[in-house]
Write a structure and sequence with these properties.
By secondary structure, the protein is α+β, with helices and mostly antiparallel strands. The chain has helices at 3-16, 29-40, 46-53, 57-69, 89-107, 118-129, 135-145, 211-225, 264-271, 286-306, 311-327, 338-347; strands spanning 170-177, 187-194, 200-206, 230-233, 275-278, 371-376, 382-385, 388-391, 400-408, 413-420, 423-431. It folds into four domains: 3-69, no CATH class; 89-145; 170-347, Nucleotidyltransferase, domain 5; 365-435, no CATH class. The strands form three sheets. Strands 3-2-1-4-5 form a five-stranded mixed sheet, with helices on both faces. The protein has a four-stranded antiparallel sheet with strand order 6-9-10-11, with no helix packed on it. The chain has a two-stranded antiparallel ribbon with strand order 7-8. Helix 2 (29-40) runs antiparallel to helix 3 (46-53), helix 5 crosses helix 7 (135-145) and helix 10 crosses helix 11. The radius of gyration is 34 Å and the shape is elongated.
């Protein structure tokens, strides 16, 4: 090799060399041959050859020996001994079988999912068959056999809520779907999520979305975790009175404007000094939509997988999924497990939850977490509710009395606690069926 050509070669070699330890990814076979030839002709010494090749002496002498033995067939191209991405035939069959089930679920218009969940298939293979297959491998088979949808990029909403502490904001929402096909009707999933940690604080199924169902949800959160600074909800009539929309409500004065009337749920939040923020669009509730999507995908698929037909079994499965989400799943945004992020923040004092305390003058949880309605006591110390006359113990006649109403599902009754002038008068328990036309629980 002429000196000028050799110097040009060396410059090109240095430019293309990288930190990768595998020589076949740094240099071509022709480049290696050139360096070996220059070493054999003593144009360069051993140290220079090692520097250019980026290898140790032992590897250099292996290459040199191989080149000397057969210069014409010498190559540094890597040859795999086993084919890549090879999985057993039975694993391939299982993947196709699970993909077919995925397609059936997606094509069922009663289901809330419209995309394939390849991560779920990976989990099923591991949990049910003890087969480890990567998600890219499953996606490869999905594309090959026609079980693949292109991912649509959704518009990102710019009103993102940012928090720095647990208890700073609770995201609260409900989702209606035919979660349980055997019921042949849509039921509601109610969920509360701590915005900072992404930990799900509450999740439960109810057959009907009612005011009291949402009251039960906040009661569970407040008693277990404390009182947060803010709650983030949509503009459902349970949370907000909107003029000209909520005319069918028995709780509202129709001459009032939006937010002039507090809903039953909102009154409880006011008494506990928890601020309520309303989302102006579905996109604005992005953080709680992510765990909803995770839960939706898993719930629908597991109902089919385990042939779940009862609400009791569905709730049992939900509890397991929430545990997995909180304790095992690494959140895509925070890159942390929600419960660990929550506990870390709590330990570092990044906590805006306040201890729950029953506000005065109430003496029982049923005085707060209830439906409240007012009636005037007549001259016989009775009030009328849905045409039913009810005696008010020790009530002052012609004065307003507050009825604190809580259902007892086990006894199918309503418990009514009477308050007048901030004084507890007593309680009664009446058959729930008498008031089904005005109360939904």
């Amino acid at each position: 090799m002429y000196e000028r050509e050799y110097n040009i070669y060396l410059q090109l070699t240095l430019i293309h060399m990288s930190n990768n330890k595998q020589i076949h990814k740094k240099l071509s076979t022709e480049q290696v041959i050139t360096i070996l030839e220059n070493y054999l002709s003593k144009a360069i010494d051993l140290n220079t050859a090692l520097e250019y090749l980026g290898i140790q002496k032992s590897r250099f002498y292996e290459l040199l020996k191989s080149y000397k033995q057969d210069p014409n067939s010498f190559s540094i191209e890597y040859k795999r001994r086993k084919p890549t991405r090879k999985i057993p035939p039975y694993a391939e069959e299982l993947i196709i079988k699970l993909l077919k089930k995925e397609k059936q679920i997606i094509e069922n218009k009663n289901n809330p999912v419209r995309t394939y969940n390849y991560s779920y298939i990976k989990d099923v293979l591991k949990e049910d068959y003890n087969i480890d297959v990567s998600v890219p491998t499953i996606i490869d088979r999905a594309k090959k056999y026609g079980y693949y949808h292109e991912i649509k990029i959704k518009q990102i909403h710019d009103r993102e809520v940012l928090t720095n502490m647990i208890g700073e904001l609770i995201q609260h929402d409900a989702s209606h779907h035919m979660w349980l096909p055997s019921l042949n009707k849509r039921i509601c999933l109610i969920t509360s999520l701590d915005d900072y940690s992404r930990q799900i604080l509450y999740a439960d199924f109810v057959e009907k979305e009612t005011t009291f169902a949402h009251i039960t949800a906040i009661k569970s959160v407040f008693l277990q975790y404390g009182l947060p600074l803010k709650y983030y909800v949509d503009q459902h009539s349970v949370f907000r009175y909107v003029k000209n929309r909520d005319k069918q409500s028995i709780w509202c004065n129709y001459t009032k404007f939006t937010d002039d009337v507090d809903t039953q749920w909102k009154k409880i939040m006011n008494k506990l000094n928890v601020e309520v923020i309303y989302a102006l669009s579905p996109q604005a509730k992005g953080k709680i939509e992510r765990p909803y999507r995770w839960l939706q995908d898993r719930i629908v698929r597991m109902v089919y997988r385990y042939n779940i037909k009862s609400l009791y079994k569905l709730r049992e499965m939900l509890r397991k999924l929430v545990y997995k989400y909180n304790n095992e799943w690494i959140h895509s945004t925070t890159k942390q497990i929600p419960v660990i992020r929550y506990e870390t923040a709590y330990g570092e004092g990044l906590n805006l939850f306040r201890p729950f305390k029953l506000p005065s003058p109430y003496t029982h949880l049923d005085d707060l977490f209830c439906l409240t309605i007012q009636r005037r006591v007549n001259n016989y110390r009775k009030i009328s509710l849905n045409g039913i006359e009810i005696s008010v113990p020790n009530g002052n006649i012609r004065e307003i009395v507050e009825l604190k109403i809580v259902p007892n599902p086990q006894r199918n009754t309503l418990k009514i606690r009477f308050w007048q002038n901030n004084i507890f008068l007593g309680s009664q328990e009446l058959p729930k069926k008498l008031f089904n036309s005005i109360f939904q629980f």
